[in-house]
Amino acid sequence: MASSAPNLAIFRDYAMKPDPTSSLPPSILLSHSDTCLTVFDAFPKSIFHLLVIPRIKPPFSARHLADLRSLLQCKKDVAKELLMNLNEEANNVKIMIEEEMMKRYKFKWDIWMGFHPISSMEHLHLHVLSADLCSPKMKLKKHFNSFHPNLGFFLHLKDVLSWFDADPSFYRRMAKLDRSQYELLLKDGDLCCWTCDRALGSMPKLKAHLQDEFDKLTKREKATLERKRKRMEAPSSPMRAPVTDDEHPEKTARVAPSEGADSGVAVVGTSADCNE
Amino acid sequence: MASSAPNLAIFRDYAMKPDPTSSLPPSILLSHSDTCLTVFDAFPKSIFHLLVIPRIKPPFSARHLADLRSLLQCKKDVAKELLMNLNEEANNVKIMIEEEMMKRYKFKWDIWMGFHPISSMEHLHLHVLSADLCSPKMKLKKHFNSFHPNLGFFLHLKDVLSWFDADPSFYRRMAKLDRSQYELLLKDGDLCCWTCDRALGSMPKLKAHLQDEFDKLTKREKATLERKRKRMEAPSSPMRAPVTDDEHPEKTARVAPSEGADSGVAVVGTSADCNE
DNA sequence: TATTCCGATAGTGAC
DNA sequence: GTCACTATCGGAATGAG
């Protein structure tokens, strides 16, 4: 039961497990590598929402991996390597999510990867979530603001990685991750849609709008699909033959959350693991 | 239906009526005199809660009677006479309430008479209410604080009258009734029981406590009644004969709110008017 | 920035 | 300090061998 779990150190527990697969059920664990493991977010804020967690291995102790700030206080090259490991795992997760998008929705949409600069959960975790923010677990203003892709709280992985190649003074400034600065961002009352930037004024209105945006996206993609299908039925285009959307037919995705449900745990398929 | 009446000037409407009895139903109007009328508070904050309203008659215009402050800006002797008229009517109302207390509860308890220094309702009204503050309509902190007999917001009529006989500078100071001063009193967070002065911390706890206090009072009075009954059965006391509690058996009270109900309108009996 | 529960707080609309 | 409705904000408890 992953219902009301006030275990704020549970990710650290996961990160310490020598053999994640044998100690974590598939309803929690999606996959793992030598350096990371990926779990379903128990309270997904998008249709797809997973967490990539660095395993506690030398040269890192639990303390180094407490959060993003503590990681960025480590030696830069070591920190960057860990982020690259997370990035690699996240890219695999992204592919799995996209496969499941195709299965369930017949189209793909964006996937975000990023960190929260401050967190109640006691171990670093990289959010990998679909770009919709539609979920019954999306309840509070701070929920929404913490995943808004352009508000500044959600730190995109590629941006964090870019800090390493920027001016050292810039790196140091960003690596500070001053708590109070970021706290203010969450209290922004505008509740602006991340897609169209309109202010919605309240969470219920925002949620309805986000659903509208996703429905519009779905409609657009369905129309695109329909045009493709027609081209396939009457292949008059001499330019190229129609292709399938599924770019990875050999992989069997199991990144399947319970769509619209409120169980708190992602529902998974029955197929086998597909990590590297 | 006196259900959801957002008419903030309704008391002024009442106060202007030439013939209250013919234009106001007995579910609203309890009684009237030449100078006042008494209505049931549509949202009683105690078991008994009525409002004595000055009628608009020379030398007063509606403006003079807008609230207590505007009244106290009138000539002192005229203002005092109006208050004395309210006082007389309120004393009659008090007697009627006490009769109904005896009928329903077999004992009497205190009755408060007083003003709110600031009000959203646009016409002066004297609150006459039983000293219990037990009512389903007692919902908010400001409700409770505005009737707390020792907090300073509820201005007891006898205190207001005493200002007239005090030093003129004192009168002028009190007559100012500075809005912001009194607003603060309503936000007092302590929620102290008006009987035992204990802080209750939240409205639900306060309401439960107020009910407890009233239940204890009821129990005490029932015990007193029982002792009296026993003395009557065995009249061994040579000092004096037992007497009835009802000091006004000739009057038929109709000051009967719906006990514990949440209709918003006081339920009345079927007997006739009993004003002077 | 864990959730959930409870309650206080704030803004609105009522006609 | 009119009410009632909606939503937000704010603290506290939560888990457990």
Automatic annotation (TrEMBL), chains A, B:
GO terms for biological process: single strand break repair. Residues 243-253 have a biased composition (Basic and acidic residues). InterPro entries: HIT-like_sf (IPR036265), Znf-C2HE (IPR032566). SUPFAM superfamilies: HIT-like. One of its GO terms (cellular component) is nucleus. PANTHER family: APRATAXIN, APRATAXIN-RELATED. Residues 69-103 form a coiled coil. This is Aprataxin C2HE/C2H2/C2HC zinc finger domain-containing protein. It comes from Rhizopogon vesiculosus. The keyword Coiled coil applies. Residues 150-216 form the Aprataxin C2HE/C2H2/C2HC zinc finger domain.
